[in-house]
Amino acid sequence: MAAAGKMMGEKGGCGRCREWQEHYYWEHMDVSKIRFSKIMAGDFQQSISIPEKFANNFSGQIDKGCTLKVPSGETWRVGIEKIADKLFFVSGWDAFAKAHELQEHDILFFKCSGSGSFDVLIFDASGCEKVSSFFTDKKGTNMHKHFDHIVSQQAEEHYLLSDSGDVNMPPSPLVGSPHKASASNKPSGKTKPREESESPNDSDYRVKHELTQEENDSDDEDTDSNKYYSRFANYLTLGEREEIFGLASIQPGNPIFVAVLQKSHVRHRNNFLIISSKFAADHLEGRSQDMLLLRPNRKEKWYVKYYYHASSTRGFNCQRWVKFVRDNKLREGYICIFELLKGTRKATTATMMIHVIRKVDDRFVLLG
């Protein structure tokens, strides 16, 4: 009997815990952590019911309708009606279901994102997320729109680079266009030093700008506002950062950009090293320009072209950058610290000291 009483006491205690948990979840939990799911069944293309417990706890907050947002970023306004003591998504739901090609047994996860708003994830019957939800707009799954956007981006990001100094060249035709770019650009007469004469074909050199997710979202800033990182450099641990900065003799106050070199940075054709947009906005002029690169304790100088366009394309791409890579034997995986020297920020010819570091036997080594 005593044992039974003890068990009943424990159960009662657990019951009170569950009541408290329920109360805390619905009354005090961050709304973004509250969610529910629905399996598509029955007449789901016209309307679906909202789980009763959810509806009861959100009564008065969603009665007038809500906004649904999918991974593509598109939003749908959907009306809510009470039918037989249950709340249903009704007006506007049919358009949502049609646009996302909802099928029987699809699973939708609704996560509260604010008053009367939900982020919606869509999974098929296999349990995998439906890729089309990342590309759907209010007219349905419209890949043409997204391909057109990609093409228009490429039109802006393909340039004819001329080392003549004319940095305001118009966009080159798209790859595959029957129209050929003119190769008759005349030198501007600038007399900047060069380490090596350029190929005659450089005036027609196409930048196949590989702004992939690897680089496009690469910007990261240290708590030290003068330190900026590429996406891959951002994976360096705090200890690794301290180690590489301990190797490089960086002058206090000089802003730096740290990049872990990828294959696209060091190959001999169609390379492009992207500079952090934050670094560029904070410390460089918003225009294309020649830039002087130096190495510690070396007399050589490399003039390269820093290419800038419409705040979206920033970096080095020209035969002179290829020469810098070749002369310094840069390889994929090397770490480059680009130190902008004082007195040259936003100058006609900005100057950077490049510190090169590689890892050997789990230790970082500064290369001369």
Question: Layout of SSEs?
Answer:
Layout: H1 2-27, E1 35-39, E2 48-49, H2 52-57, E3 66-69, E4 75-78, E5 80-83, E6 86-89, H3 93-99, E7 107-114, E8 117-123, E9 136-137, E10 140-141, H4 143-157, E11 160-161, E12 205-206, H5 213-216, E13 220-221, E14 227-229, H6 238-247, E15 256-260, H7 263-266, E16 273-274, H8 277-283, E17 289-294, E18 302-309, E19 313-316, H9 319-327, E20 335-340, E21 350-360, E22 363-367
Parallel strand pairs: 3-8, 14-15, 17-21
Antiparallel strand pairs: 1-7, 2-6, 3-4, 5-6, 7-8, 9-10, 11-12, 13-14, 15-20, 16-19, 17-18, 18-19, 20-21, 21-22
Describe this structure in words.
Helix content is 24%, strand content 27%. It has helices spanning 2-27, 52-57, 93-99, 143-157, 213-216, 238-247, 263-266, 277-283, 319-327, and strands at 35-39, 48-49, 66-69, 75-78, 80-83, 86-89, 107-114, 117-123, 136-137, 140-141, 160-161, 205-206, 220-221, 227-229, 256-260, 273-274, 289-294, 302-309, 313-316, 335-340, 350-360, 363-367. 25% of the residues are buried. The N and C termini lie far apart (83 Å). Mean pLDDT is 74; it is low at 3-9 and 143-218. It has two domains: 34-141, Beta Barrel (At1g16640 B3 domain), CATH 2.40.330; 209-367, Beta Barrel (At1g16640 B3 domain). Strands 13, 14, 15, 16, 17, 18, 19, 20, 21 and 22 form a ten-stranded mixed β-sheet that branches. It is an alpha+beta fold and 368 residues long.
